[in-house]
Sequence to fold (392 residues):
Amino acid sequence: MQLQFTPEERAFRDEVREFLRASLSSAVRSKLEQGTNPNKQEIVAWQRALNARGWAVPHWPAEWGGTAWSPIEHYIFQDELQQWPAPAPLAFNVDMLGPVMAAFGSEAQKRHFLPRAANLDDWWCQGFSEPGAGSDLASLRTSATRAGDHYRVRGHKTWTTLAQYADWIFCLVRTSAEVKKQEGISFLLIDIKSKGITVRPVITIDGGHEINEVLLDDVKVPLENLVGEEGRGWHYAKFLLSRERTGIARVGASKQLVRRIKQVAAAVRRGARSVLDDVTFRERLAILETELKALEITQLRVVAAEDRKGGRADPLSSLLKIRGSEIQQALSEMLLEVAGPDAARGAALDADPGMEWLTGAAPRYFNWRKISIYGGSNEIQRNIIAKAVLGL
Fold:
């Protein structure tokens, strides 16, 4: 395996870096560096800048805006966005709905929804999880009953990320209770402003409003909003979840966080010494850096194998999810340790430029407990490794 980029790949990396330097506002970059999420307007503006450059949906089919990038170039693009840092294109539009619709949607759906999803003219959210149907998604109970030229949808979705911003929601719904539970599920597109929909905020332990409940009370949905075939929603959902691939390790984001931890640890004093002067702290950080480098090399191996296989996902990518989430959580804990009592003290550090970043350490630490759960919990990833890699 070649661990060095080719001259062409290095030139592509330089092109991405120059675009980031010229196109992303310093205010948005500063927010991300400090652990604060950009607002809706900033996310929309950035995705539209990417779309104008032809980079918002690089993994879509070329006819709908995709590029001819290799898996290595996709990796470079993701890594540079995370290290800069810059917002990723909205995953619900770009990584989830788009590939499903391109593969299984009708021509009318593709023509209408795909360009709008790429340009973030429509903000999508995901309606999969329900109370009692999260890890066991096939047990979902939200029902869609045919009534003439439409469905009547009744149910309750939860953990719906950023639904407060959404224009549309793609939902898994039960259209039949008479067959095996996986075979009675369909994939529907629902205007979230429809009569009968209530979006109710769920405030997380870090005090943020990121997730929501979505209540559907006899919502009328046109039959034309069914994606693909009725009863094939479980198949489409598996296809959707397989699109996350190696980027879920977020190696670039962890590298950026290591640099920030070093910066703030050198500035924060504990008595006469900085936190970075503490030998034990440096040893722990060095161990994490070493593990991160090993993860990066593993990711490059998986990407190189994917390149040889023509873009097919490698089950070893489950290793990336496990170690990537564990390293991100460990780094967030180290940042919390550096911040100490200033971790959640709000404006206390406003007078010290650069140090305001510490005030988000506690919210980040609590929020990142979820990383080992979403995208397929680490327990599920271990099952995948046992079956697909070890053959157990």
